[in-house]
Every structure is written in structure tokens, then in C-alpha cells.
């Protein structure tokens, strides 16, 4: 199970990321048929494996581990400082508040939201590509799943 989750993480986030985000001590919650549902570390949810597309959605603990493992600016969206508290509380990030974004981001990707100094603020799903986040003045850029002030 661990090798499968690590392989998915490598495909989704980049080669070598799976081993750094998912250590050997991970535990798994499985479905009745034995498939991986959630990955846990020290009682905290690192990720959930989505059944409909086989991709990982990260919990707050998983987002923090990805932030440490993946060098910037990969997979990161930088927000304006005046909205940091809202995003940290779990509110969605709109494109007018995006300062910079990794241009390799595609809609549907898991992304890390960081402040102007590069500190981790939230994890969520990109609703727009990196280019679109910068070009658009309206619309949701990132659907925030977990902010640092909103513990699981």
C-alpha cells in the first residue's frame, strides 16, 4: 500500500516526493475491499486517495510535509498579505488576491498557498491554471481545503 501511495505522489507532485511526504511509519484506513482510503501519520491525516480519479488530496499535515519536501516555487500560489488571515482560516482564495503562481499549475492540482515571505498558509485545489490565476481579476483561484488556523 505504501509503495502505491508513494508512486501516486511521485506522479502527482514530482519524482522523489512520495518518500519524503509518506514515511515508513504511515498507517492506512482502507475500504471494505482493501483499497487505500486515507493515509495517517501520528494520528493526523496526511492524505485521502480519491476513488473517482485515483489522485491524492492532502490534509493539513500532508500539506505541511509537501511544503517541506517540494522546493519553491513549485506547486505554490503566493497571496496578497492583506488576505492572509482569511485564507489561514480556511476561506477560498480569489484570483484578484494572487500575487504569483507556479506557471506549471493546472486546474485540479493540489497547491500550497504561501504568503509573500514564502510561509505555508493553506492547502487546496487549484480552480484555475497558474497563468489564469495571474491573468483573471475575478473568480476563485484556489478552493482551500485546510488553512493553518483551522486544525483537523
Automatic annotation (TrEMBL):
Domain of life: Archaea
Residue ranges the record marks as coiled coil: none
This protein's name: Pseudouridine synthase
InterPro entries, sorted: PUA, PUA-like_sf, PUA_sf, TGT_C2, TGT_C2_sf, Uncharacterised_CHP00451
UniProt GO molecular function: RNA binding
Domain PUA, chain residue ranges per copy: 75-149
SMART domains: PUA (SM00359)
Lineage: Archaea, Methanobacteriati, Methanobacteriota, Stenosarchaea group, Methanomicrobia
Amino acid at each position: 500500500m505504501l509503495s502505491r501511495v508513494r508512486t501516486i505522489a511521485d506522479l502527482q507532485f514530482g519524482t522523489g516526493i512520495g518518500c519524503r511526504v509518506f514515511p515508513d511509519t504511515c498507517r492506512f484506513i482502507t475500504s471494505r475491499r482493501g483499497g487505500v482510503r486515507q493515509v495517517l501519520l501520528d494520528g493526523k491525516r496526511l492524505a485521502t486517495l480519491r476513488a473517482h480519479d485515483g489522485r491524492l488530496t492532502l490534509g493539513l499535515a500532508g500539506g505541511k510535509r509537501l511544503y517541506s519536501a517540494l522546493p519553491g516555487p513549485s506547486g505554490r500560489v503566493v497571496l496578497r498579505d492583506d488576505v492572509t488571515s482569511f485564507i489561514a482560516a480556511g476561506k477560498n482564495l480569489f484570483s484578484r488576491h494572487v500575487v504569483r503562481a507556479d506557471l506549471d499549475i493546472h486546474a485540479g492540482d493540489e497547491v500550497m498557498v504561501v504568503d509573500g515571505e514564502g510561509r505555508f498558509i493553506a492547502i487546496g485545489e487549484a480552480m484555475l491554471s497558474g497563468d489564469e490565476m495571474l491573468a483573471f481579476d475575478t473568480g476563485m483561484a484556489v478552493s482551500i481545503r485546510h488553512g493553518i488556523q483551522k486544525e483537523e
